[in-house]
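Work through this protein:
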Amino acid sequence: MTMNRQGRQTAGEAGTEPADRLDTFTGNRGLRIEEPLIFEYGRERETGVDLPAGSEEESLRLGGLERRKPLDLPGLSEPETMRHYVRLSRSNYAIDSGIYPLGSCTMKHNPRLNEAVARLPGLSDIHPLQPVSTVQGALELIDTLAHWLKVATGLPAVAMSPKAGAHGELCGMMAIKAAHQAKGDARSIVLVPESAHGTNPATAALLGYKVETVPAREDGTVDPEAVRSKMSPQVAALMLTNPNTCGLFEPDVIEIAKAVHEAGAYFYCDGANFNAIQGRVRPGDLGVDAMHINLHKTFSTPHGGGGPGAGPVVLSEALAPFAPLPWVVSNGEQGFDLVEHAAEGDETRPFGRMTAFHGQMGMFVRALAWMMSHGSDGMRQAAEDAVLSANYVRACLSDLMSVPFPDHPSMHEVLFDDGFLYESDISTLDIAKALIDEGFHPMTIYFPLVVHGAMLIEPTESESKASLDLFVATLRDLVIAAKRGDRARFADAPRYAPRRRLDETTAARKPILCWLPRRPQADAAE
């Protein structure tokens, strides 16, 4: 038996239509099933579960509130329901199916070890309302994780309850507001650099602060003198993202922190990009007063799909007394306790609580499993490899694509702009859509806003050189095609995705939020 060296035909002859473009009777493309909404093929009076008819006695118990119309759910058998959701799952793109180069999002590999630990009995099946004596292991885990977060950041306190990045931002800024109020200092302004994450000004505004922007220098970083020029007795805090959203480390961060503290304000650092500096830099050494840490980014468990997340907030000595409840405290040999109320006369003055319980337990387990399996040297290497990957992509593409800030090396993500497309009629969006046809999830586009036509790529430490080489080669091929004027390749992309290019403007302005049955339209003559 000899090996088939010819392989399968992957494209039609020149001038012929690819098989993927041909119409079929079913709408399917081979084994890629065209999947309608579940309501579109569900049938009334059919269900995968048999329920007895209600009796008159049961109707009386409802006091006249029983349903009089059919339940508005699709009727399907159990196999049909299962097939529907399995087919939908096959339409998902995930880090387990390919590279996920979203800049500013840290979509890295989630080790299976994390999942195994998170499913252990005693961790996966406990309830937050159980007696404290029955969840000592869980409290010890939270306390251990909190300890290593403080060690990694060089800050003395941490609030564990925030459930994601923006929630953590809110926690840190509420602690800052409480600290000012405790001193009788009613400050009203928060400074936010242009290179910060977009949630930063939103958080400050939510708390009633007036947001003032600090412009970036030509090299994409923040000038300490620009911060000083904005300082006044009304400034409560500066919210700085470091490394910033341009993928650059702020070289003057210590001088910036000094300017903030001299004015009696606090330094809030957005820690969403901690994956670039963990094990290399301790934010506490830079003068940071508060920083949220996205456990679901830095310590695996990628957050695509909406969660769940966890956003513990580390706090300086000045802000530690205002950390929100609850706290896990060690009572030595007696075990651990969950403090729900601050004692009278205590030096602590918590501003309240962020959530009903103690945070995202599943994320705590996964994050600690990742940290312990890597160790301090492994965490440092993860940061170094993430930075290496980003700079490798930059070096491989900078001869064809334009780098807006060439004077600084990239950190964990590399930023390109659309300058290399100016002489073509191809846009950043066209490049992103064409990447889908090549089997890649697009990078983050049009963000950060300080760069026109931005393309932000974060390969993370998870990707092999071979994986990065294929991604780079694909981008090079697309850029060359764009510069050559091959408009046809981009105009209708993506052509091979389950759905073609959408009218995104109309979709945003006129969203269809729920399914309604089609109604027959009357002819104009009627």
User: Anything to note?
Assistant: Residues 1-21 have pLDDT under 50 and may be disordered.
